[in-house]
Write the structure tokens for this entry.
Amino acid sequence: MMKEMPLGRQAPWPETYDPSVLYPIPRGGSRPGMHGFDLWRAYELSWLDGKGKPEAAMLQLVYPLASRNIVESKSLKLYLHGVANTAFAGRDELLETIRCDLEAILAAPWVHVSLLADRQGPATDWMHDLPGVCIDGLDIGGFPDRIDPGVLKAQENRKTESLHSHLLKTSCPITGQPDWASVLVEYRGKGIDHASLLEYLCSYRGHRGFSEECCERIFQDIDQACSPESLAVSCFYTRRGGIDINPVRSSYEKNPEESARYRLLRQ
């Protein structure tokens, strides 16, 4: 029998390294024509060096849409709590241990793990502003009380542009806690009506869904309603429980390093 999901219930915190606390959530069916990956940053990583001295850094991990599962966020936090009290011979051993454990639970062809924002990290290289036009100032006069892709409109003129909004709000499907995110839509094709896109994104305010599922639904709805020649949707969720989640879905292979450059001020 599968163990219970730790999210939404009390769960014991492991005192030392314990990969068994990691909990997989199946992704579901196939996604024809969709590419993508999930980029996570854990801000509360610590461990012991070979002499037992604590160290700390930020953990970044990236894994592909091709993985069979996603990792449940609270289980990752529990796992990292155990890592904090465990000695590793060096950073390479730490990263290889985390990579192997995640690759196994995700059933993923690859997982990239790295340490950021410590004394040797590339924190100053991050981009804090999203590219293109921010649509948040548009007057939309209200929005649907549930997700309605029917409000999306495309124009006849062709464009290549980037649009973004900081107004996406969804809720965890298990706990009901709010999740906040910025959304970047990059496309080529018939021009997407900016006000209709904002109206559509605001309609998620009452929706319960994991961040990955929400990003995929936004991608699919825009793709079906506007038929762009190319499309990429990136969602930059603010951190909860010391972890921010950044799913990216696209009609083409997108380099994770490009998305990793962005860490918004509210993250």
